[in-house]
Design brief:
zinc, 4 domains, metal-binding, 20 helices, GTP binding, Carbonic_anhydrase
Length: about 550
Amino acid sequence: MRSPAVPPRELHIVLLGQSQVGKSAFIVKYMTKRFIGEYDSTLEETYRKDEMIDGESVSVCLMDTVECESREWHRWQTWGDLFIVVYDITCSKSLTFAEKLLERLKQQEHSEREGRRVWRLLLGNKTDLERYRVVSEEEGRRVAALHGALFAECCVAGEGRSVNEVVQRALIQLVGKKRSPSPTRLCASDSEISSSQSRKSTFSVSLRSPSRLKESSKLAYLHKGKEAMEVIDNVLKRLYSDVVTKLKERAVGRLRRIQRPVRDIAREYAKARDAPSTAPLPRVISVTRMQRILRGVIQYRQTVRKELVEQFKEIKDNPQPKALMFTCMDSRMLPTRFTQAKVGDIFVVRNAGNLIPDACNYGHYSEVSCTTEPAALELAVKRGGVKHVIVCGHSDCKAMNMLFGLHACPSNFDHASPMDHWLRKNGHRTMKKLNERLYKGPQPLQFDSEVAPSQSFEAIIDPFDRLKAEDKLSQINVLQQLVNIASHDALKEAFDQGKLHIHGMWFDVYKGEDYLFSKEKRQFVIIKEDTFDSLIDELHRRCNVPLGECPDIRQGHFTPG
């Protein structure tokens, strides 16, 4: 009589590392042999794949983690058998972050896992970008050896062989060693995924109760039965029904797609409940994105609507916007908030990558463009009398990441994609400047304007090499758009008469810091209290206007001249 199939042994792999180093892409490439360049970096996911390692069937469970979720560290630590710490070979900052993770894993190996070995693998990703490499293979090996970790490099965007080889070699190391039982392992992997401090005591008691242990021991004699697996399944369901129910509830609760909106709505509901208001409390129902937006409208009506209506009335007859800002459509970019602009202060135009196409893309004289960017320039500058145009980019720009990826792997260009055409048509000059910066190092780059020579300048991008290549590209992109604005003949007269001034800004979405490009210092300068006066003085000299008409970059709004 055939014995029931033995379930494969589970091996748990946790991927750690800074955001944008390729953790999610690594997992998807391993699972599907496909490369996908864009992910939501705020979601944690778990994947499973069966493998044959040295003749043994193994179920590989991979967990994709979130960089900033330090509160989840204990759960990752107790769940994983192998920790793959990923860094980007084009970004030295990501290696520094990875080294801190390795050190933390090494310190907690004995304190939290009671002697069970923590297998660590330091993985350098993006070897397809060899020409942009800033972290040598020798440096990676040195860091790995220092922390007792294995080392490998791979290319997620290229052929899948290197990704599979990395996982296979790591699994061979794990399968070759016996797995020591840990008291933190209470039951199946599903319960481990939903682990928490409160779970340990509750589930330990329910799983180890004498009655259950006595009855479940009978299962050992069923291995020769014809319907053994069915009998075992029924017994387990009967014995552990309450535990299974709890696990399902906790698994649902752990899904970030549900947990985060629920938490946000609960917080908003609590605020509305505690706030002194005669309006009835909104009923909290099932959460959708549109419901959150509509709830925001209700909150706006109950709070700031009355004040804004008064401001609308004030500027209705005499609107005097002081600037036009081109910025990215990224949902994290809130220009009126981080500049503290008032109603009517700034025209804002948003698109993918804060790109303003060069005039040669539109035609001259007899050819009239009907696209947004030149129309906005005419409306604000020629018809609205605006004297300041600002281009504001930001870190971790998805459009710039895509442009960088298209340049690194031209074969990924999709002829049916409007986004790919938009980036290729308007981003090639920016990419040429990035190649020059990466090849020559932090040397001055020349940005020349033929139509308005007064708007030419030099720039030193990231002089201390603290930014990854994509963020360098984002800063270069901001400055290239200034040149593109100056290329339009319709603005030449305003430039020649000193009636129009263009500025480059850059926003760090992780630190919440604003930077202004200083033509005198030839680099982006952080806007804060001790740099404010020098930046305003430079604007006064460069714009040759009274201080009252210079953009008040500290307060964020534009004081009338």
